[in-house]
């Protein structure tokens, strides 16, 4: 079973940033998909909650150089 979360992304400057975030997220075991929309500054992540959690997703985005807040 997968879970979807939406993240508000700060510090994005261009569409290449959005692509970078998607690549960084999808390179991790447990993440099924990541779709970042530069214009809306949002990332939708579909992941396996048995493998990783929201805190780990936030860490991955931070490691890529961006600030993320869970969009609730």
From TrEMBL:
Residues forming coiled coils? none
Residue limits of the HMA domain? 3-69
Matching entries from Gene3D superfamilies are given as: 3.30.70.100
Give one Pfam family, short name only. Answer: HMA
The UniProt entry, under InterPro entries, shows:
HMA_dom (IPR006121), HMA_dom_sf (IPR036163)
Q: Which CDD domains match?
A: HMA
Q: Which domain of life is it from?
A: Bacteria
Q: Name one GO molecular function term.
A: hydrolase activity
Q: What class of enzyme is it?
A: hydrolase
Keywords carried by this UniProt record: Hydrolase, Metal-binding
- According to its UniProt record, the EC number is 3.6.3.4
Q: Looking at the keywords, is Nuclease present?
A: no
Q: Does the keyword Hydrolase apply?
A: yes
Query: What protein name is recorded for this chain?
Result: Heavy metal translocating P-type ATPase, Cu2+-exporting ATPase
Q: Which organism is it from?
A: Candidatus Gottesmanbacteria bacterium GW2011_GWA2_43_14
């Amino acid at each position: 079973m997968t879970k979807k979360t939406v993240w508000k992304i700060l510090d994005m400057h261009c569409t290449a940033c959005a692509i970078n975030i998607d690549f960084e997220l999808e390179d991790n075991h447990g993440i099924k998909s990541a779709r970042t929309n530069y214009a809306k500054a949002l990332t939708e992540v579909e992941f396996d909650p048995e493998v990783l959690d929201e805190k780990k997703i936030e860490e991955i985005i931070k490691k890529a150089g961006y600030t993320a807040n869970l969009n609730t």
